[in-house]
Structures are given as C-alpha cells and as structure tokens.
Amino acid sequence: MTNKGFTTNIVHHDHKDKLTHGAIHRSIYTSTEYAYDSAEDLAAVFQGRQKGYTYARQGTPTTASLEAKITAMEHAQATVTFATGMAALTATFFTLLRQGDHLISSKHIFGNTNSLLMTLESLGVELTLVDATDAKNVAQAIKPNTRMVFVETIANPGTQIADLEKIGKICAEHKLVYVIDSTLSSPYLSTGRKFGASLVVNSLSKHISGHGNALGGAVTQTGLYDWQDYPNIYNQYKKNESNTWGLLQIKKKGLRDMGGTLSSDMAHRIAAGAETLALRMDKICSNALALADFLNQHALVSKVSYPGLVNHPQHEKAKIWFNGLFGGLLGVELKPEIDVFKALNKLETAALATHLGDNRTLVLPAAHTIYYEMGPERRALMGIADGFLRISVGIEDTADLINDFERALA
Ligand SMILES: *Cc1c(COP(=O)(O)O)cnc(C)c1O
What we know:
seven-stranded mixed sheet; 12 strands; 38% helix; globular; binds pyridoxal-5'-phosphate
C-alpha cells in the first residue's frame, strides 16, 4: 500500500486490517486494562515478548492505529502518541536527556516550548539557543556533552525556517540526536526523514486533526539514528535493532512516568481529521499565499512574514523543501498608528482566538495574548511589536477572507 498517494494510504488504512463487521474505522477501545487467558501470556506481554496491551496509560489499539497512520505519513519506522504536543515534547526531552547534557535549540520556537526548555535548564540540562536559519551557528555551538539538536521546520510564530538539511548532516557527522518539530509544515509538506531527523514531533491538535476539536501529540522515529551512539539508553530498552531503542524508551518511560497519554476517543477524532490533511493543506496554503500577497501590499501593514513571499529570507529553500507549499501561518505587523483592537473587532469571518492549523481562520494580537506574560522588554528583544498579529489561515472561500481583512483595515 505504501506506493499509493498520501490520501489514498490514510483513508484506506484501518479497514485493510479486516476489522470486525467490515468496520471501516478501528473501534474506540475504552478498556482501561487488558486481560489474558493465561498468566504466561500476561507476563509475556508485560515483558515485550508478545504483542498486546496491558494498561491503557501505555496505549490502546485505537492509539496504535493512529500511530501507524502517522508513521505512514512520515515514511518512518514507528510513532508514539501523547495527550498534547507539549506532552510529546516533554516525554522526548525528559526521557532522553540527563543532568549535565547539552541541548542546542533554535531560538525561533513556539513560546510554550521555550518555557519547557527553561524548565529543563533549571533541572541541570545545559541549553544553547542559536539562530538555526544558518547551520553554521549550530555547528559552532557543539560541545563534547552535546546530545541533541532541536528545531521547528517553520517557526511559530515568526515563520523562520531552520537550515533543515545542513543541520541534519551536521547531526549525522557528530552522532547527535536531531529532533524536528514539524507541526507547522505537517507531514504533507515534508517528512522529517528527508532532512535526516532522528525524531519528528507533531502536535496533532493542529493541522493533522484540523477541526479544532481534539488535542494530541506524536513522536515519530525515522530509524535513521543508531541509538548505540547515545549514552542515555537504559539497558532494558536495548533489545531488537539499535535504531529502535530511543522511541521504546520515550514510550515506556514517557507514558509511564509522565502519564500524558492520548485517550482512545481523541485518537479516533484525530484519525478521522487526518483523512483530509492533504486536501485541507492545499486550500490552507493557497489561501495563506493569497492573503499574504494582499496584506503585503496594504498601506497600513508594515511587514508580512510568510515563507511563500519572495521577500522571506528562506523563500528559495522553502520552495524546494515543502512541495511548493508554504504553510498556513502569517506573521503580520500593522503600522504603529493603527489601533490593533479596533481593527480586529471589525473582522467578521476570521475568529479572534489562539490555536493554529484549524479549518477556521484564527487571528491573535500576539503581544497582548501569548506573549503578554513575558513583559515588554523580552517582547522587544524577540521583535514582537504591539501591532503584531499571528494569523492562522483556514479553508474558507478565498474572497471572503480577503474581503474580511480589507474591511477591517479600511
Ligand atoms: C501548538 C504547538 C505545540 C504544542 O502542541 P499542543 O498540542 O498545543 O500541546 C508544539 N509545537 C508547535 C510548533 C506548536 O505550534
């Protein structure tokens, strides 16, 4: 089935497993615990010698089915799902890094991830934030205790694009774990494998589910990294091939110790949403490009950050890497003389809300909301102006969207 297209693979994924009654979806398994006919079987499942489920915190057939779909989308080896994207990131960092280890991260990252990295730092992980749009900055930051490099494909909210390919080569050379957060591009625009990622993180709450009705996260292992080169793998997870060890540790320790498990109900919703990922992304990306073009020429807009615009610093790379698409997120800076709240209150179609990757267009005045807590000094350092809008473009009819912003800015 893998030689078929992206959407064909996903929509026919479950029923090819010959489910009972010819069901086309995998059932929502609500059991907390799974029972066995013999004590030998129970023990074998616990010990990983036999396939099966034990306690739903460690996963269910429903989460496993979603994991298989995400693995197929990423052309990867295996996936573990979590309750949210943040739970996926937390499990990855906390199960693979130890006190005294050095982590290199892009400085252009989602604010909540930045907050998580500061927690890691307070617990003794050494952190260096670099401008990852140039791989040289990553290479220069490497030290003997460096274990991992973390970047986002397209950064939330600034849309900077990391030097994905070259960083992959540097990580391979230095045997570093390369973690890519692919949330803003989604596996439809590009797989992490293409850039040499060891692990790919996707917030399933965003594009993959798409309908603003489910939270989830996933960590996918590409199989490209040989965990024999990684010092922090516990002996009990060193079974089977050595390119499988890391994700086994994330799954076992991450779900057990932190308990951020995806529920079967949410896994089902996300899987249903994922069936239209390609269709939604095509529309979202063409809408976003049209809106970016419109706003970029508007007299009351001082700056539009969107990888699809030729003035975006990584436009040429984005064109090659993301199948000719540029994602759905726009960073828009209104001229200082504009009353941001007044303009936003005039929007009729776009919703005033946080979140991204939804079917609906969502707009947020970043300085007054997601970046409010950090205060004016840090905002100034990060270049978040008072008039900065984060726009997550949806699947609405293009003309309605452009008219909406035209009216709001009139
Ligand atoms: C939203 C987001 C996350 C976190 O995902 P949640 O499902 O909201 O926890 C992680 N990374 C990026 C880039 C995001 O946009």
